[in-house]
Specification:
Blueprint lengths: L9 H5 L39 H29 L5 H28 L2 E3 L2 E2 L7 H4 L10 H20 L8 H24 L4 H5 L7 H19 L4 H5 L6 H20 L7 H29 L4 H15 L8 H11 L2 H12 L1 H5 L6 H19 L2 H8 L10 H6 L3 H36 L6 H6 L1 H5 L8 H4 L2 E7 L4 E6 L8 H4 L1
Antiparallel strand pairs: 1-2, 3-4
Helix pairs in contact: 2-3, 2-5, 2-10, 3-5, 3-6, 5-6, 5-8, 6-8, 6-19, 8-16, 8-19, 10-11, 10-12, 11-12, 11-13, 12-13, 12-16, 13-16, 14-16, 16-19
Length: 513
């Protein structure tokens, strides 16, 4: 079958009257001897304006959805599974609550503070993002509605707070967390997002390269999480020494959602279905795979055996490291970044952390500092080294190639000054994000601490979920509860011994089955 299409001007399109008796809906309009016919779904109308690219809009909505799935259920499952069973509900709930709270703050004032009209050189004017006239208009970037952009950026803001929660599991007062979330997204996240991602942001104008959130999300979350962990204080000593996962297999399922969801995380960065988006997705997974291999190898060489927890950490460091560079580096550079992100954070987490007293003092259950702050900063620096000028032009759509050029290519092409400038901007942005998040997070923690205690009292720490929520993640049913008392710990096999009191007689074979 041969399909013919006619090229129309917008004015001619709106004057078209559809036919009713054949597949052709319009009379052909000839231009230069060519004849083309538009299918009905390509004709603009009130719901599909001329500027709307349906393919881009569909991909952006899908990318936003899979990023949301990274948080719920991805990180909800991961946190709820990797902690001790008495903290499973609280850990999962912290993530679940943060997602909901951030989205409400985002549409109420956060989006416009991050991407709206410039108020200060680092911040936009607060305003709601709920009016249909605003939401149905064209987004500030991309060929899709503002509503799509609001949702896409909203799930990024939400996952940032959830990542911060990873450093606070097992001891933070849930009321303090409920206050911390809206304050942090308002006074910290919006400033970083506007500075780096908004076209009017001061770091964006300087030319910082942050493809999809290595600075705005991961470096910010790592620094903020570690700072908050300092102010909240550590878990009880017993749980710092031994905090076993309650279900590592389910934890792997959560990690898998996080990994695959990164296709939308980085693939949605260009705001368009393009070759750059495809490259970003491939580079993302290649880097993560390389990082996992290195982390597992180092675990095996140093500890004598590979661990699932280590593999998950290696996955995260690889994904974080490639995020600022995903669509602007070559595939070989992505692999090299994976090798570095699987080794440097491993060293800081496994070796350096135990040698530096200050690092050892701060309790970070999910190692957010190493997997996000260290890996995010590492990714920003490596982006400044490996960014390809051509790929940067395709991503940023700018003719001035000297504004976005990795140092390696600057040295190769005789543009050393431009390469050094780019590296300086990358490092300068890292310093800004670290200092700003340290200061704002500290101030927010001090403010929240005046209103409610940041850390649970000792008795509540022993009870965990029961004290915080009055619920248990792995509760036995009432009949089984009545059968057991005097729970004893078997130190030899690290198991629990139960004493029967309801029926002192031995169980029959049928009862055992």
């Amino acid at each position: 079958m041969r399909l013919l299409f006619t090229v129309y001007t917008p004015k001619q399109i709106h004057s078209i009257k559809p036919a009713t008796n054949n597949l052709s809906i319009i009379e052909p309009w000839r231009c230069g001897g060519s004849s083309m016919e538009f299918p009905p779904n390509l004709l603009p109308d009130e719901a599909s304006p001329e500027w709307l690219n349906k393919g881009d809009n569909a991909w952006q909505l899908m990318a936003a959805t899979v990023v949301g799935l990274q948080s719920i259920p991805g990180l909800v499952i991961l946190y709820g599974s990797l902690v001790k069973k008495t903290w499973a509900i609280n850990s999962a709930f912290m993530a679940f609550y943060a997602f909901a709270a951030v989205l409400l703050c985002w549409v109420a004032w956060g989006f416009r503070m991050s991407f709206g009209e410039k108020m200060l050189f680092f911040l936009g004017k607060p305003g709601v993002a709920l009016d249909q006239e605003f939401l149905l208009g064209k987004a500030f970037l991309g060929l899709f509605p503002t509503a799509t952009m609001v949702f896409f950026q909203g799930v990024f803001a939400a996952i940032t707070l959830i990542l911060i929660a990873g450093a606070l599991l097992g001891r933070m007062n849930i009321l303090a967390w409920m206050l911390f979330v809206p304050l942090w997204v308002t006074f910290s996240y919006t400033v970083t997002a506007f500075s780096i991602w908004s076209p009017e942001g001061w770091l964006a104008k300087l030319g910082v390269i942050d493809f999809s959130g290595g600075y705005v999300i991961h470096l910010s979350a790592g620094v903020a999480g570690y700072t908050a962990a300092y102010w909240v204080g550590p878990r009880c000593e017993k749980e710092r020494e031994r905090f076993p996962s309650n279900n590592m297999i389910v934890g792997l399922a959560g990690a898998g959602l996080l990994w695959m969801g990164w296709s939308g995380f980085n693939g949605g960065g260009p705001f368009v279905v393009s070759t750059v988006a495809s490259l970003a997705v491939l580079n993302t997974h290649v880097c993560a795979a390389a990082s996992i291999m290195v982390w597992v190898l180092l675990d095996t060489l140093y500890f004598g055996k590979p661990t699932v927890f280590g593999a998950i950490q290696g996955m995260i460091t690889g994904l974080v490291c490639i995020t600022p560079a995903a669509g602007v580096v070559q595939g070989w550079a992505a692999i090299l970044m994976g090798l570095i992100s699987g080794s440097v954070p491993w060293y800081t987490m496994m070796i350096l952390h135990n040698k530096v007293p200050f690092l050892k003092q701060i309790d970070d259950p999910m190692a957010v500092f190493h997997t996000h702050a260290v890996a995010g900063a590492l990714g920003g620096i490596l982006t400044g080294l490996f960014a390809v000028p051509k790929l940067c032009r395709l991503f940023y759509m700018v003719p001035d190639w000297e504004k976005y050029i990795g140092l390696a290519y600057g040295l190769q092409n005789g543009a050393t000054g431009a390469g050094l400038r780019q590296m300086g901007i990358q490092i300068g942005a890292i310093v800004f994000v670290i200092i700003f998040n340290f200061v704002t997070t500290s101030l927010i923690c001090l403010l929240v601490g005046v209103l409610v205690p940041l850390r649970l009292h000792t008795d509540a720490l022993q009870m965990g979920d029961k004290a915080m929520h009055g619920e248990e993640a792995f509760a036995l049913n009432n009949a089984d509860n009545a059968m057991f008392e005097n729970l004893n710990h078997n130190n030899v096999y690290d198991t629990q011994d139960f004493s029967f009191f309801r029926d002192p007689k031995p169980l029959t074979q049928l009862q055992m089955v």
